[in-house]
Write a structure and sequence with these properties.
single chain, about 300 residues
């Protein structure tokens, strides 16, 4: 797979914005079927997706310039070039944002996002809804009792890793919790890619991605696909040992540490009124009242 050294588990571009840009372009280029953009496909092609010269033609730039972009030798493409590449590759809004970040990335340490007393009170106040808070590395830094119970026992560090990426890829229990494991895994990888593009100097984040790449073939496979995900809203299925599979709506609330930074994300789950899932959450909430205090906080 492109982007991953199979001998070392190292991930192409991590900690190097120029290499990250090239790796992202290669991954997205491999995703585009030639016949979908009016080019001849066929079994005799030796590369997945588009060739470099084909993408350059579609984007209206020279092949030499595009090659220099992929090789990290051209680092300041114009907004017009980025827009042309995004259109040729069929990038969505999140992927376009990531592409722009890789070109204009600022060096320096990632901001330290702390759980404020106000955010702690908010997490506790939504006690009828499972809730937890993550930072850009996907460390779970705060949760309420119902969230801790529903998401694998967050209150007990011996029960599960409090980094959602390590838990998802390295703990077999995560596949029981998430019956739709593959889309959840792609989501986590996409979130880490966004964070890595914005904060290439974050040693802990770089170390996390390299560790997962070295230990998890599934992580390497998904990372090589160039997934980009920004937290939003939707619906997820979770499996609880007593309540079975619950289909819950979720919303993410972004709490930036400073303007323009990723900061913290609060994840809140709920169920439609009078639904079986709503009854399940009520039963779990009643059980959680005997658990540890309603707003637990972990400092990563």
């Amino acid at each position: 797979m492109e982007g991953v050294d199979h001998r070392t588990g190292d991930v192409d571009g991590i900690g190097d914005a120029r290499r990250a840009l090239g790796a992202f372009l290669r991954a997205r280029r491999a995703r585009v079927a030639p016949e979908h953009v009016g080019l001849a496909g066929g079994r005799r092609r030796r590369v997945r997706g588009l060739r470099r010269e084909e993408l350059a033609q579609l984007a209206g730039i020279s092949v030499d310039y595009y090659v220099r972009l992929e090789q990290g030798r051209a680092t300041q493409p114009s907004p017009e070039v980025l827009d042309s590449l995004a259109r040729a590759l069929g990038l969505d809004a999140a992927e376009r944002g990531h592409l722009a970040t890789l070109v204009g990335v600022r060096r320096g340490a990632a901001p330290s996002a702390r759980v404020s007393p106000l955010l702690r009170r908010i997490v506790a106040a939504v006690g009828d809804f499972p809730a937890f808070v993550t930072n850009h590395r996907l460390d779970v830094v705060a949760w309420n009792s119902l969230g801790g119970e529903l998401f694998g026992g967050l209150s007990d560090p011996a029960r599960r890793d409090r980094n959602n990426a390590r838990y998802l890829f390295l703990d077999p229990a995560a596949r029981d919790l998430h019956p739709d494991w593959e889309p959840r895994a792609a989501e986590v990888v996409g979130q880490l890619r966004v964070a890595a593009g914005r904060y290439p100097d974050d040693r802990d984040l770089v170390g996390l991605i390299r560790d997962l790449s070295g230990k998890s073939p599934a992580f390497r496979r998904i990372w090589a696909g160039g997934e980009v995900v920004v937290c939003g809203a939707g619906r997820k299925r979770l499996r609880h040992p007593e309540e079975g599979i619950l289909t819950l709506d979720y919303e993410t609330l972004h709490v930036p540490s400073t303007p323009g930074e990723m900061g913290l994300v609060m994840h809140v789950f709920s169920a439609e009124e009078d639904s079986p899932e709503s009854a399940s959450l009520a039963r779990l909430a009643a059980m959680a009242t005997t658990a540890p205090p309603p707003a637990m906080v972990f400092t990563a």
